[in-house]
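Give me the fold.
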Amino acid sequence: MMQYPPDSEIEIILPDKEIISFEDYRTYIDSALEMIRSFSIKHGWESYTKDAFINKLMVYDDKKEFDQQLLKLVEADPGIELPETYCAALENKILVIVTPEIYSRVFPEGIEENSYVKLITHEIAHRLHIRIIEGLEDHMGPIWFYEGFAIYVADQFSNSELQLSRDQIIEIMNYPGRGNYQNYGHIFRLFAEKMPLLELIMMAKEEHFNERLIPLVGE
């Protein structure tokens, strides 16, 4: 692994054969942080961006090595088999991520303009969400909501022409497992247009959160 000079604000560790430079990865991070700052300023949450989100970046050109590092980082069972589409995670200010080439291969539906920067932004957005709710991770809401929030912040799938029926939306909201991220983005944007964002975020901890939102879904 190659390591960024120690005087850097963020330690960057790349695989030995990675062709993208340290400076390019630093640009990715800076662009993602700027997206987070701009979003936060827009919503009056600038104070939540004062503390650093990332102090170390670890890039992997082998998906299995990435999976092993991610499980180690979150102190999970190393025998867990992660979905092929898991490509990044930010824990304890350490961002682990696959290379852009791997991301493009395993998650082609996520490829759009600046998609790699948006992937990083998505992971930082989860940390921003936790700061907004004062560290109470169990108040982040159902999967569709907290992933939808990160998708919304990162502007992923914003040009999607996806259409979902009322029944499909309700089914997706109530499904307890992980599903399609494009669906999550579509549903989150639907509610973000109907309610103040902070109100949505604070409601998400409620046991009957989905039930409260369903009347807002059109026919």
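The longest strand covers residues 56-60.
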